[in-house]
Amino acid sequence: MANKEAGVTVSMEVEDDGIALITIRNPPVNALSLSVIAGLREKYGEAMRRDDVKAIVLTGADGKFCGGLDISFLQEVQKTGNVSLLPNVSFDLVVNTIEDGKKPSVAAIQGFALGGGLELAMGCSARIAAPRAELGLPELKLGIIPGSGGTQRLPRLVGVSKAIDMMLSSKTITSEEGAELGVIDSIASPDELLTASRQWALDIVEGRRPHINSLHKSDKLVAAHDLDDIFQKARQNAQAKFPNEPHYGACLDVIEEGIISGPNSGLLKEDKVFKELLLSNTARGLLHVFFSERATSKVPAVTDSGFKARKIEKVAVIGGGLMGSGIATALVVNNIHVILKEINSEYLRQGLRSIEANLQGLLLRGELEEDKMKKALSLLQGALDYEEFKNVDMVIEAVNEDISLKQSIFEELEKVCSSNCILASNTSTIDLNVIGERTTGQDRIVGAHLFSPAHVMPLMEIVRTERTSPKVVFDVMRFAKIIKKVPIVVKNCTCFAANRLFLPYLQAADMLANLGVDIFRIDQVICEFGMRIGPFQVQDVTGYDVYLAAMKEFSAAYSERTFLSPLVQLMQESGRAGKKNGKGYYVYERGSRPKPDASVQQILEQTRELTRIVADGQPISLTDQDIVEMIFFPVVNEACHLVDGGVVVRASDIDIASVHGMKFPSYYGGILFWADSLGPDYICSRLTNWFKAYGNFFKPSKYLEERARKGILLGASST
């Protein structure tokens, strides 16, 4: 059929063997759009009516089966709040048309069958897959649950425990794993896939293989007493891992309903819960993050300029410390040849050992296979001079935040590297124009700011100056994707975007400490809000020297809204270095959780005496909500400065920076999306009150004041 959506078709071909081949074509991932769903219904209806059709093989075009429901449609439903717009895929298509149709279907899977794509396949009588095809139900990452029968069929095909693990982890499995578990019936080479699938379908028709309805399979289900134990443990784990995300528990309820009360009851509950969750704040936030991540790949005058990406295959990393070794690790695991340079043999040995330890850690966590680790190590070499730099495609400088040191390095790089080599700095705070001021070719200087640990954290800030070539920005964006990072392009300024969000967060915590609020209560409240660790433990883990160096740059550039507290300096003077020496706000002992150190109270009293920001010297009384707002509203305010100053391409880039840079909970949608859920007027009024009471740190930005006055959301486009 020809659909309204350009390039989208669901076609059917009937061969002499009586097999109807129905093919989904909806580039790039063959998603289930409204047109595709309508096309499937039409072609299945035709196949069922035709006397010359014995059975059906369902597949996808261009080596991809189906990437699931068109997610952009879900966002449209959220905007209207009208769930009746959702197509009835579960009952009308999967159950009534495919599974209960009088003619059997076989799914021929290449590439991937994800989400609704796997649910379509599970509705078929059998599933034949090409090697290494990806299978999974990742819906929970978006705040929803599988909505086309996945909660009911997967447990019956692979067993309850494995199905729960696959859904709650959102991880994919290979077709080979699927064959071992029972969701895949056979593996066939890509060249033989359709032939094998057609034969399997004929075998069902002619009685040589069973016509299986997976919704009513029961051989993989377990006894009632075992079931109780499985779900009790699953709920405990979900509560521990996702305490603020109720859709994980809801998914377990739906799975359990189907097993206890029968699959039809389970399908009805799945449909009801899916629609409720789709309109929840959690799903709105997670879908916003999903689309915001996709938007980062589009930068005007860069990605629309027709550039052809250059290959970046060999990269030099200068500095083998925590950041440099992490960056090098991220590169070698993604097949980039790395030259690690250090100033002497001992530092180089330490750097190379750190990389090997990083790789070993990935191996132990199951994120890297043994053969890939060996290959990664083979791509690594050390250097004590610049001799090998003449052949590299890119250099990433990752030394300490020392301006003169960085300037001398870039001055040297310009002499030794080829004229088309990209010169990047991993600086987190320093203006790139200052770093490159001794060079002449500043068009190839760019910021490539990764976050520690660099081989784990997903964000990469690509910092461009007014002189940075758009082609260089384009190349580094493509490079970020190769090393599996989420890139945001930001304008050159002190501290860029992510650290301009992060430092007010830490300053706000220091402000509350100086107002007499218990620091361990602050950390607890912020963790309950959803941050992985609180701001004072962050200072311990990051290192006081790093924090003070960053604050020095921030306060010099943005003095009018900086809160300078002597707290961290006093911590250092007392012999504390945080996790580095086991003594900070918390006590760190190997093999045990960090414990609050009550003796810090003396230092807190000293810093309060020095700042004297409470008139009568008495601690202020705050609710938990007050603490959350006093910590995060200054971050919102700084985000407004970033948007107003054109530092980011779009407001949603701020949300990505907050989620992937400072680990703001993704289910809130990012810092600005969360702020808009509360309302700019409310945030502005609260900041205004604190500004009057405690000074300029809380002074609302002009952007925030204007948006509050006009009733415009902070993340809304200005056009």
UniProtKB/TrEMBL annotation:
Q: Where is the 3-hydroxyacyl-CoA dehydrogenase C-terminal domain?
A: 496-588
Q: Which GO terms describe its molecular function?
A: (3S)-3-hydroxyacyl-CoA dehydrogenase (NAD+) activity; 3-hydroxybutyryl-CoA epimerase activity; delta(3)-delta(2)-enoyl-CoA isomerase activity; enoyl-CoA hydratase activity; NAD+ binding
CDD domains recorded = crotonase-like
Q: Does the keyword Isomerase apply?
A: yes
Q: Looking at the keywords, is Flavoprotein present?
A: no
Name its pathway.
Lipid metabolism; fatty acid beta-oxidation
Biological process per Gene Ontology, one example term = fatty acid beta-oxidation
Question: What's the family?
Answer: In the central section; belongs to the 3-hydroxyacyl-CoA dehydrogenase family. In the N-terminal section; belongs to the enoyl-CoA hydratase/isomerase family.
Name used for this protein in its record? Peroxisomal fatty acid beta-oxidation multifunctional protein AIM1
Question: Species name for this entry?
Answer: Coffea arabica (Arabian coffee)
Source gene? LOC113702934
